[in-house]
Amino acid sequence: MRILLVEDDIMIGETVLDVLRAEHYAVDWVKRAAQADTALRTEQYDLVLLDLGLPDRDGLSVLRDLRARQERLPVLIATARDAVEQRIAGLDAGADDYVVKPYDVDELLARIRALVRRSAGRAEPVYVHGDVSIHPATREVLVAGQPVTLTAREWAVLEPLLARPGMILSRAQLEEKLYSWKDDISSNAVEVYVHGLRKKLGNDLIQNVRGVGYLVPRTGTAA
């Protein structure tokens, strides 16, 4: 799962970054509204943790711009603004939840998990390829009717390929799903996770286009 952390306070940002990564979330941290806008337009995230008091623009404008594009990406506001009318303004602007600083990190993690569960309840396709069926909303994977467990990074490689059957994704594009911006990337990381997926799901699901990248063939169906 990949989270965009929008927080200009260095101490808070570093603490939250460490906590989220300890929970095995991939995290991109930006400190300004303009950086958040760019990240949200160019990258794919599962959740946004959004501060409102940003140095270049109010965080609510970032949220409004996101919702104007009709993107239903879960957004959790984390701010020092604790007045009732400010909470109402944040929720009315399209936030899914609101937590006031200083917050307990365990509560923050619980709210993130709740938003992820709620997001998973939205209608999503079920991908079927041969005897493999994959439910993106719940991350349930069945092979010949039997459940198969994927690691978080195996899923991070598989999901973008499933979402675009027949489209080739380069190794660099898949690496973006595996790591946040400042992580060190192993030179063969994608190959390692593709190998693991093939062992679990069969050799035919993910195909290698030599010198270009990987794809899931269109012979799979989305119900």
From TrEMBL:
Q: Could you tell me which residue ranges the OmpR/PhoB-type domain spans?
A: 124-218
GO MF terms, alphabetically ordered? phosphorelay response regulator activity; transcription cis-regulatory region binding
Is the keyword Phosphoprotein assigned to this protein?
A: yes
Q: Which UniProt keywords apply?
A: DNA-binding, Phosphoprotein, Transcription, Transcription regulation, Two-component regulatory system
Q: Which residues carry this modification: 4-aspartylphosphate?
A: 51
Q: Which GO terms describe its biological process?
A: regulation of DNA-templated transcription
Q: Which GO terms describe its cellular component?
A: cytosol; protein-DNA complex
User: Whereabouts does the entry annotate DNA binding, in residue ranges?
Assistant: 124-218
InterPro entries recorded: CheY-like_superfamily (IPR011006), OmpR/PhoB-type_DNA-bd (IPR001867), Sig_transdc_resp-reg_receiver (IPR001789), WalR-like (IPR039420), WH-like_DNA-bd_sf (IPR036388)
- Keyword hit for Transcription regulation: yes
Response regulatory domain boundaries: 2-116
Q: Which Pfam families match?
A: Response_reg (PF00072), Trans_reg_C (PF00486)
> What is the name listed in the Swiss-Prot or TrEMBL entry for this protein?
Two-component system OmpR family response regulator
